[in-house]
Amino acid sequence: MRDDRIKAQHLARIAYVYVRQSTQFQAQHNLESQRRQYQLVEKAKQLGFRDIQVIDEDLGVSGAIGSERSGFKKLVAEVSLNKVGLILGLEVSRFARNNKDWYHLIDLCALFDTLIADQDGIYHPGSANDRDKLSERKPLILEQNGRQIRLSGKVDRIDLDESGQFIIIDYKTGSGTNRLTRSEIESGRSLQLPVYLESVSRRFRHRGIDASPAGAAYYFLGDPENPVRKIVIDKKNMNSVLKMVIATVFEIVESLTKGRFTHTNDPDDPRCARYCAFAKICRKDRSKLITRKNME
Questions:
Q1: Average pLDDT across the chain, whole number
Q2: Quick one: average pLDDT of 17-35?
Q3: What Å distances lie between residue 292 and 182, 262, 269, CA to CA?
Q4: DSSP assignment string, 122-134
Q5: Residue 17: exposure state from Cβ atoms within 10 A (0-12, 13-18, ≥19)
Q6: E-assigned strand segments in 109-240
Q7: pTM (whole model) above 0.90
Q8: Contacts of 179 (CB under 8 A, 6+ apart)
Q9: Maximum distance among all alpha carbons in the chain?
C-alpha cells in the first residue's frame, strides 16, 4: 500500500538509494548491512518509482566530514536541481553525522518537495510533524576501534547559563534519594546521565554553540511540594566520568554480543526484583544464596 505522501510529481522524478558505511572495516566485514541497503531498490519499486539510482561512493567514508563524501555531495546537488522525488536509506542517521550537513539536506528536501524514507517510514521535511521526527532521529553514535554503537533517548531538562555552562537534569517520580548515587555513576553502574552529558556536548558542538558541561543532577518528585535535587556529577568527577562512559558502554555491549548477561553485582539491591520484568527467571536470587553460603 502506497503512502499518501507520495504524489505523481514525486514518482515522475528519481528515487535515490543512499548506501554508506562509515569505516573501511564495516564496508569489508558488515556485508549484511550492505545487502539490506541495496535491497531498498526493491522498496522504491514497490512504492511506484521507475527511475531508481544508487549512490554508494561513500562506502567506508566517515559521515563526520561531509566535504569528503562525493556521494553525499552528489545527493545534495541532485535535490537542489529538483531531480529527486525520494531519498531512501536504511537509517536516516546514515545520511550525515554532522548536524549542519543533515539539516541542510532536510531544508533542501523541504524546499524542493523531496521525500525521505528509511526502514521505519516515509517523511516529508516540509511537514512540521515529519520534520520533528527527522530531527529526533539523530542518535548519539559512539565509535571505538572501528565499531559503532547508536544510542537514543530524551533528556528531561538542560539548564544553560549566560557563561555557556550547562547542567543536565533528569526527573524521577519517586523519592528514592538513597539510590542513584554518585558512587553508582563513577563506577559505571548508572550510565544514563553520563551518556546524556556526552550526547548534549556533541550536539552543542555540531550546532556551533559554545557550551561546556558543568554537571548533572536528579530531581526526585515524590513530594511535589518539596522536590529534592541531588547533584551526582560536578566538576570534581566530570572528566573521569566522561572518559569512563564510552569505554563502559562498549564493554557492556561486547559482553552482551558474546552471550554474557551479567546480573547485578549487588545481590541485595532491591531494584532488581522490583523493576525488572525478568526477575523471576534471573540468576540474582541464586547468586544471593551462593554469596550468603560462602559468607557462612
A1: 79
A2: 74
A3: 27, 19, 14
A4: EE-TTSHHHHHHH
A5: buried
A6: 115-118, 121-123, 140-144, 147-151, 157-160, 165-172, 212-220, 228-233
A7: no
A8: 271
A9: 78
Per the rule left: phi > 0, alpha: psi between -120 and 50, beta: everything else, 9 is alpha
Most confidently modeled range among 126-130, 183-187, 201-205: 126-130
If you write DSSP's letter for every residue of 101-128 in order, what string do you get?
HHHHHHHHHHHTT-EEEETTEEE-TTSH
Quote the CA–CA distance of 263 and 223 in Å, as a whole number.
Answer: 31
The candidate with the shortest Cα–Cα distance to 234, out of 188, 197, 202, is 197
Into which CATH architecture does domain 8-138 fall? 3-Layer(aba) Sandwich (3.40)
Tell me how crowded residue 108 is: count the other CB atoms within 10 A of its CB: 19
- Burial (0-12, 13-18, 19+ Cβ within 10 Å), 160: middle
Q: Where in the chain is the domain with CATH 3.40.50.1390?
A: 8-138
Contact 48, 2 (CB under 8 A): yes
Q: Mean pLDDT, to the nearest integer, of 145-158?
A: 79
* C-alpha–C-alpha distance, residues 242 and 215, integer Å: 11
The 157-160 sheet, strands edge to edge? 157-160, 165-172, 212-220, 228-233
C-alpha cell at 295: 559468607
